[in-house]
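Example: Acyl-CoA dehydrogenase.
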Amino acid sequence: MRRTVFNEDHEAFRETIRAFIAAEVVPVYDEWFAAGQAPRDFYLKLGELGVFGIEVDEEYGGAGIESHKYEAVIYEETARAGVSFGGSGVHTLLGLPYIKMLATDDQKKRWLPKFATGEEMWALAMTEPGTGSDVAGMKTTAKLSEDGTHYVLNGAKTFITGGVHADRVIVCARTAAPREDDRRFGISLFAVDTKSEGYSVGRKLDKLGLKVSDTAELAFVDVKVPVEDLMGEENKGFGYLGTNLASERWGIAFGAYAQAAAAVRFAKEYVQDRTVFGKTVASFQNTKFELAACQAEVDAAQAVADRALEALDAGELTAAEAASAKLFCTEVAHRVIDRCLQLHGGYGFMNEYPIARLYADNRVNRIYGGTSEVMKSIIAKSMGL
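Written out as structure tokens, the predicted fold is:
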């Protein structure tokens, strides 16, 4: 299918990433899968490759490229190989936008050089045990000390991707009570050093999918956070979160499209090799029709994902457009991956086949970053309903 979203630089980067995956990830991926996470030193390799510094300004050791297209290439190439880069996706997709948007010059000098090298991995802690999509309902608190030098952080977070290996976590906490007319008021963001006393990582959560991505529970007991680590202005955190949700939802949408495309590739290869009743499975009309229908859906999802990518790079992706892209691409991926697994028969249920892992990994796309139901609510509101 003809595409205009990528140029020669992106394709050269694609070749580099594909070779890196073949050499550094595929041979050891089963070990990572069994361990439930990628090893910490793998992130240093990604830093050395330049993956984390693409959108970091040159003065801090990055390439200074203002584009998400290189991230998009990584989504496509990891899906194509049936692997992941562990919990590192949140480092760039979730961590970096907040640093670039909110950090002072002093904070950037402290944080970005190690961000780019992978020496300091970042995560975002928003979700709590009792609050998922209702961010304003969070209970974690950060109270300013009497001498005004630090905040005292108390509370808990859950479902934190990258939470096991993170060196800094952007923690959302209440610095003031919600107002009667604005329950979103009073939330602030802090870049918390995970080595701080009172900070602890609880369980590494056992998930249905995304087995190589470390996801954890976090707890804060009287954690002292220097005032110098407040991100942006106090009590305005909810607005900051809303600003970056569009890019997060684009990432989920694009990743889902890439997974659907990979599923078609896996199924096509399998049915061409697999023989039933003396014929290849690919030779049956039902197989051809199923894969043709899946390919048509992938083509549509690709167009939606590419359009959202162009809008994001132009700074024009609205909340409703991001919600629409996420809803459409994740629903397409759900249908396509299920049909492609069916074409594998019993082998599709075995984790040694990438389609089985893909099936499990894909399920969360319709939940995290805002559920499909929340996406529909956002879209309906934009329609004036």
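DSSP finds eleven helices and ten strands in the chain.
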